[in-house]
């Protein structure tokens, strides 16, 4: 089988993707800026390399000999990270730009780019109960400051490399992906993992209270990692795509409801402390899946309760084993 490159392979989604591609028999080159000991998962059979993909020379070496490229490398985290590190988030533009150039030079067959629901314009997300976000809602542009602008710009780079240079690019707008083998502390964790950690710590410490960022009424949809991987496979297998596509669950919940789900997994009830000065993100965000459904007759559908049960179990085992995120 031809070789494939997974960038950001030491991260949450990249780590799962390498494992999934290997299970399907692919020959994988896995690259991340982090030392191997800090990767969330490593596959012994993959070619695992530590490289800084902001560097054009590193991108050329990484892409050489690969038929397909999956770019999941970015300097990012949850709201706490992206609201406070806008310049770092924007610098990820170097990764995608140099990877696209390298992919063109090495005549890569297909190039996957991990975009985000953060590209959607602010005024479509300023209340908890607005309709789900359709692909067309990204324009006129007013995305999340920093991180969202980088994603929107990189999406367009993918589009124009396809239109002008014939490089086949596939762009997914992920909506809050969650699951095992990702950050649950350290500052880059996202809401599902952070809430699991807080509930587990409350349970273990006996201090039955929880801090919630914002008023807890902000809404989101959360996509289980297995659905995310399935969608990536569909997008990369498609002969054509009509531009960036949502890859997200349509099951909308408030943060308060997410906390309730985790409390029931833990078998406790906690007193809520709302921190209304903490980063909380937009008021409402959910994926409109009409386009992905019409193209693939499929959409992410793992029930949140089921995905969170698996995620909670993994984080609890990590915490009980005394492990923290690297
Ligand atoms: P992650 O932080 O776990 O993984 C990203 C990886 O990229 C990290 O391991 C990091 O070390 C690596 N990286 C950063 N800079 C690099 C560099 N210069 N060279 C090489 N590697 C570098 O994040 P994730 O959750 O796995 O997200 C993967 C992709 O999906 C990212 O592009 C992210 O923006 C996008 N995305 C994720 C979500 C989500 O909910 N997880 C939502 C929307 C978009």
Give a description of the structure.
The chain is α/β, with parallel strands linked by helices. It has 2 domains: 3-177 and 224-247, NAD(P)-binding Rossmann-like Domain (Rossmann fold, 3-Layer(aba) Sandwich); 179-220 and 251-286 and 303-320, Alpha-Beta Complex (UDP-galactose 4-epimerase, domain 1). It is 39% helix and 18% strand. The chain contains 11 helices and 13 strands. Strand 5 (110-116), helix 6 (147-165) and strand 6 form a beta-alpha-beta unit. The protein is globular and about 55 Å long. The two termini are 33 Å apart. The chain binds nicotinamide-adenine-dinucleotide (NAD). The site of nicotinamide-adenine-dinucleotide has 26 residues, from helix 1 and strand 5. Nicotinamide-adenine-dinucleotide binds at residues 8, 10-14, 32-34, 52-54, 72-76, 95, 114, 116, 174, 176-177, 182, 188, 190.
